[in-house]
Amino acid sequence: MYRYDEFDHALVQDRVAQYRDQVARRISGELSEEQFRPLRLMNGLYLQLHAYMLRVAIPYGTLSSKQLRKLAHIARTYDKGYGHWTTRQNIQFNWPKLDETPDILAELAEVEMHAIQTSGNTIRNVTADAYGGVAADEIEDPRIWAEIIRQWSTLHPEFSFLPRKFKIAVTGAPHDRAAVRFHDIGVIVKRNWDGEIGFEVLVGGGLGRTPMIAKTIRQFLPKQHLLSYLEAILRVYNLIGRRDNKYKARIKIMVHELGIDEVGEMVEDEWERIKTGELELPADEIARIRAYFAPPEYEALPAEDPGFAAKRFEDRACAQWVRSNVNHHKQPGYAIVDLSVKPEGQPPGDVTDAQMDAVADLAEAYSMDELRVTHEQNLVFPYVKQSDLYELWRKLIEQGLATANVGLVSDIIACPGLDYCALANARSIPVAQRISKRFADLDRQHDIGELRMKISGCINACGHHHVGHIGLLGVDRRGEEYYQITLGGAPGEDASVGKIIGPAFSSGDVVDAVEELVNVYVEKRREGERFLDTYRRIGEEPFKTRLYEERFHAAA
Amino acid sequence: MAKHVITANRLIDGLVVYLSASGGWVEAVSESLVAAAEAALEVALETGRAAEAGNHVVGVYEIEVDGSGPAMAPVSLRERIRAFGPTTHPEFGRTTESGHYQHSDGVEPVRFGDA
Ligand code: SF4
Predict the structure, then answer these.
(1) In chain B, what percentage of residues exceed pLDDT 70?
(2) What mean pLDDT, rounded, does chain A reach?
(3) Phi/psi zone of residue A255: left (φ > 0), alpha (ψ -120 to 50 degrees), beta?
(4) Tens digit of each residue's pLDDT (9 = 90 or more) over B32-44
(5) Same domain, A376 and A447
(6) Are A248 and A200 part of one and the same domain?
(7) Nearest chain B Cα distance for residue A413, angstroms
(8) Backbone angles phi, psi at B40, to 5 degrees
(9) How far apart are CA A372 and CA A402, in angstroms?
(10) How far is B94 from chain A (nearest CA, A)?
(11) What is the average per-residue pLDDT within A513-518?
């Protein structure tokens, strides 16, 4: 794992001291809210419906057990015993007190964590494939590059006041688990015809009120030029991105208005000027960062552990869990384990302090002290020996983290919605809870198969509803909560934006409507088809007919 | 005029508070100062704004309420959630009314520890 160097330590300590002073001045009345607001936001502190909310950065979602224990301690000491994993692989605390936030940041600094650039019009926490370094289909660990980008973008003086927030994601594998096509910049590690490793760079993706799929701006970028090329993109955007209209300020609008070719030319021009300058990455610097992500000391094991294969055969529940929550590992005899933070009927992505402590212990015992946070609000143990799987599974059950539903209909992404968020139209979490209960039968969920269900409480789309196979968007109809349904969205390499299927459903009807959509799929699917495949083959009509003509006559 | 009360978030902990008759800020909406006429609302808002200028609270505004005494509650869902807490976590809430924790088809969310 990456460890802070002296520079990082000093920077974070300075920031805590500076922030402590700012908070003191706010409390004494020396600073007004207007003056203080941008300062607190720079340190990840929002004011939401019920209280302040602190968002802590977890670069590319990688955590050590020690760091997780610290987060547990913070949840227990400064919050109500909970943390919430976000869709940017971060954690949010929903109840910190203003006067205690400097202490929280100081505690975080002890374990090399902070809340810098988790808000504001800056380059936000860089995300990466949560299976980085271990995925069987990976070309290279994306976290090496995410870390290089993190160092470059942290407190980058030129990019502290961009036209709007800016999100970058990196994948090291062709199968895109990081939704890179829905980021301001997406970086895909790739090989060229000569077998050299470099990057495909995409630009202008995003969700929100104008969802867009990113376009390729460069088919192949040699490694050493990563930062100079990103800098060139950011410079062009910083200069001509629209600052006059918040809704048109993201780079996706710039790319859309000017076209990818014109933006590409401008970027190339800028890049020509700077590519051989100080941003060119020397090979020894890349090697230095790479060393932090060197594979751990794996044991030499057979590809399949015979003991576990037998257990799996005997225990049906365990086999079911393996099917949905355990993935292929690069290293023979090892497995990647997803911990579901979506237990039946509970708020997606919430964890208690006790669970965090328990997970930290389990990661220490079974995953070489390391875990990951996924953008789907789950956790991952990246280094589990197959021979440990059965025992780990039993222990995860005790913690309520072994629900065999990863990638299935109850593995729902939901934004905080009206229960916490000041911008919301409608609640998201209770709808997720109800859907999760409706489909509680795991056999049924496994029969339905992969189904990405995503819910946002307003058009800002923090719940990624546009890329849900089924997406729900909360709307306000004369003070009542309604939900618009979109179908056919996909976040990965087969990216698509979901289409609105018709008039919105009341809160009372929306879970029934979702169930009907699933029923249509089950009736129409062909062998091996996921919900998304069937939808793409048969189109929206059968789904529409079922909802608006057969089932809910009065819905419109 | 419909009944209104003044609300804000307290500076020090961010919690939702309401202006009380004594000019202080209370956490229970049922203990807030009710303005039922334009003039009274204006005065209450002025008091609230002064508290904001004095850095006790942040984001002062008025909301409509219904009922009286302990049964007083905001009219809009957003404000009911502010007054009584998230509908998903009864242990964070400010009310024990189970209705607050039910979504519209009457399903009550479960808590960690329940099973
Ligand atoms: S999508 Fe809207 S309601 Fe949900 S968290 Fe984002 S801003 Fe809030």
Answers:
(1) 90
(2) 95
(3) alpha
(4) 999 999 999 999 9
(5) no
(6) yes
(7) 16
(8) -65, -40
(9) 16
(10) 11
(11) 97
Element (H, E) at B59: strand B57-66
* Ligand 1 pocket, residues with Cβ under 6 angstroms: A 415-417, 421, 423-424, 456-458, 460-463
Quick one: average pLDDT of A88-94?
93
Of A367, A398, A429, the residue at which a domain comes to its end is: A398
Q: What is the DSSP string of A475-502?
A: EEETTEEEEEEEE--B-STT-B--EE-S
Please report the ipTM that was assigned to this predicted complex: 0.92
Side-chain half-sphere exposure of A267, counting CA atoms within 13 A: 29
Query: A29 to chain B: nearest residue by CA?
Result: B55
pLDDT digits (tens, 9 = 90+) for A105-132: 999 999 999 998 888 899 998 999 999 9
Please state, in angstroms and rounded to a whole number, the distance separating the CA atoms of residues A471 and A328: 28
Question: Is residue A347 domain-shared with residue A376, that is, in the same domain?
Answer: yes
Answer whether B11 sits within 8 Å of A424, measured CB to CB.
no
Rounded (5°) CA angle A478-A483-A487: 150
Contacts of B104 in chain A (CB under 8 A): 481, 506-508
Mutation choice for B interface testing from A48, A95, A427 by most B CBs within 10 A: A427
Ligand 1, atom 2: closest residue by C-alpha:
A458
Q: What is the Rg, in whole angstroms, of the alpha carbon atoms belonging to chain B?
A: 15
What pLDDT is recorded for position A155? 86
Q: Whole domain around residue A144: which residue ranges? A: 134-292
Same-domain pairing of A177 and A277: yes
Task: Give me the torsion for CA of A288, A290, A292, A296, rounded to 10°.
Answer: -140
B109 to chain A: which residues are within 8 Å by CB? 345-347, 430, 433
Domain assignment present for residue A384? The answer is yes
- Which residues span the domain enclosing B71? 3-92
Is beta strand A470-477 parallel, antiparallel or unpaired with respect to A453-456?
parallel
All residues at 6 or more sequence positions from A84 whose CB lies less than 8 Å from its CB, including other chains = A91, A92, A93, A94, A347, A349, A350, A351, A416
Number of domains in chain A: 4
The verdict on A216 touching B (C-beta cutoff 8 Å) is no
Q: Mapping DSSP to helix (H, G, I), strand (E, B) and coil, where does residue A266 land?
A: helix
Gap between the Cα atoms of A36 and A252, Å rounded: 30
φ and ψ of A153, to 5 deg: -90, -15
- Burial class from Cβ neighbours inside 10 Å (0-12, 13-18, 19+) for residue A374 reads buried
- Radius of gyration in angstroms for the set of CA atoms belonging to chain A, rounded to a whole number: 23
A317–B contact, CB cutoff 8 A: no
Q: Do A507 and B103 touch (CB under 8 A)?
A: yes
The domain tally of chain B equals 1
Reduced to 3 states, what is the DSSP secondary structure of residue A54? strand
From the CA of A157, how far away is ligand 1's center (Å)? 29
Mean pLDDT of the B53-71 span: 95
Instruction: Report the CATH number that the domain containing residue A61 is assigned in CATH.
Output: 3.90.480.20
Q: Whose CA is nearest to atom 6 of ligand 1?
A: A462
* Residues on chain A touching B111 (C-beta within 8 angstroms): 346
In A, minimum Cα distance to B85 occurs at: A50
Percent of chain A with pLDDT over 90: 88
Q: Do B55 and A26 touch (CB under 8 A)?
A: yes
pLDDT of A555: 45
Q: Which residues contact B114 (CB under 8 A, 6 or more apart)?
A: none
Q: What is the pLDDT averaged over residues A497-520?
A: 96
A310 CA: distance to closest CA in chain B (Å):
30
CA of A459 to the centre of ligand 1 (A): 7
